Amino acid sequence: MTTSPGAQRRTAPRRPRTALVVGGGVAGLTAARDLARAGLRVTLVEASDHFGGAVGAHEVAGLVLDSGAESFATRSDAVPDLLEELGLSDRVVTPHPVGSWLQLPEGAVPAPKSGVLGIPADPTAPELRKPLGRAGVARARMDRALPARVGAGERSIGGLVRARMGQRVLDRLVTPFVSGVYSTHPDELDVDAVAPGLRARLRELGSLGAAAGALRTASPAGANVAGLDGGMNLLSERLVRDAERLGVKLVTRYDVIALDRDPRRPGWMVIQRQPVNGDKTAVARGELLVMATDGPTTVRLLGTQVSDVQNFTPRSGPRIALATLVLDCPALDSAPRGTGLLVSDDVREVRAKALTHATAKWKWVAREAGEHRHVVRLSYGRATPRGSGPSPEVTLEDKHLISLALGDASTLLGVPIEPEQLVGADVVRWHTALPRTDAGHSARVTGFRRALKDVPDAAAVGAWLSGTGLAAVVADTRHQVRTLLKHHGFDVTPN
Questions:
Q1: Where residue 275 falls among pLDDT bands split at 50, 70, 90?
Q2: Mapping DSSP to helix (H, G, I), strand (E, B) and coil, where does residue 341 land?
Q3: Which of 3, 361, 372, 493 has the most other CB atoms within 10 Å of its CB?
């Protein structure tokens, strides 16, 4: 017996018509936009009073600057493709090629330019002699002679580098890079989470240097990072604008206290904590759900609805403070430390873990700042022993942190900077912007995603799952949304 086309239509499952996104950072905005482009009515709720998360803007001394991320990695087409869709391709710029420096106890030296995560691709490179010394270089060279199995079982960056290249490479090259980027000591950083494929290439090629070089070579030619003329905050701004054009309902100050199945219709609902009296009255709904919050929040909210996900709760990310200074300082015109410095933990006279000389790094910042004015940004939140809490600098009041930043900037840049040269300053603090990718993190992510596969109408995105950086976040978010849509019968073409 044949079934009529009409009967087929009556019995075929109805495709979802609505979607709910929790979290309004770049991951959440990207997810909401892609869901809306597929034809769904989308509601996005965000706990804070603004969208974009760590990709935002602030005004300092009349300059609109990035308050968080200022660049993206060019190792994939994920961000360039999104920028093209948003009409921002013509704003892409690359940093000045003067390079960065390392601040070591004995002074500043140019940073090595090869490898990944501070791991040198060529331990014989002349540029390594200053930071490592003769004994350090000799130990690093042993990497080429050691059997490939040495260190292959190490799960942390610190353990792997120590086993292959020695403590000197770890302390002087890798730790400043890792601490500056991840605010975590290499001994607590999951190698598979921050450098996927590194251990596999070690087993294949026989040395850590060769593996690091291979990962570096696999990146597209040219600069390793790029930015936008006007700042990466333009990405968040344009995502919001495009989401609104597509009909996405964007809601701020929506602090979700509970996630549940909707008893009256297919799908999900979230309940808002009312800011005045705590009444649980405000509800948002969607047949499909995308969680785009930090890891602990996502696991907590899903824990009552998805079996086993609570077993994979990640650790909360480090607390970071960024102090931005606008200086009237002609002595900085020569960019004495290139685009900035990463600071060794062994440097006692400086508390910042990194400094970016923004007017030396980006032509657009120099143009907007004007002659002899310079923008420098210092990052605080050095890695502390496990469980010992935030670094003390992060807890300082703004005025005290700005004063500390002035002194640190003068020391790091090698230029006297007086308080009267400070034109303006601002402090931005991040508590959950970076995931805590400690040893075992990649296994927890794998376990979480395995558990979530049993829930076909939900997905989760964000840096804690994809890895740190816009390139990773955008690529993974778009993949997860495509997978969710395809499962529900949508014809989705790759982005």
A1: low
A2: strand
A3: 361
* CA distance linking residue 360 with residue 368, whole number of Å: 12
Question: Which tokens is 236 given?
Answer: 């968040």
Q: Residue 435: name the closest of 295, 291, 309 by CA.
A: 295
User: For residue 225, which phi and psi values (nearest 5 degrees)?
Assistant: -135, 160
Alpha carbon of 189 to those of 68, 172, 433, 442, 467: distances in Å? 22, 17, 16, 10, 12
Contact 322, 428 (CB under 8 A): yes
CB 33 within 8 A of CB 24: no
Q: Residue 343: which H helix or E strand, with range?
A: strand 340-343
Q: Which helix (H) or strand (E) holds 200?
A: helix 198-205
Domains of the chain with bracketed CATH: 16-53+231-315+436-487 (3.50.50.60), 111-217 (1.10.3110.10), 318-430 (3.90.660.20)
For residue range 465-492, what is the model confidence (pLDDT) as tens digits? 998 889 999 999 999 999 999 999 998 8
Looking at 287-354, list the stretches that DSSP marks H as alpha helix, in order from N- to C-terminal side. Answer: 295-302
pLDDT value of position 86: 97
Residue 60: half-sphere exposure toward Cβ, Cα within 13 Å: 27
Residue 125 has pLDDT above 70, yes or no: yes
Conformation bin of residue 218: beta by default, left when phi > 0, alpha when psi is -120 to 50: alpha
Q: Is there a contact between 355 and 341 (Cβ–Cβ < 8 Å)?
A: yes
Q: Write down how long the chain is.
A: 495
Angstrom distance (rounded) from CA 83 to CA 86: 5
Joined together, the tokens standing for residue 254 give: 């929506």
**Banded model confidence at residue 2, pLDDT cuts 50, 70, 90:** very low
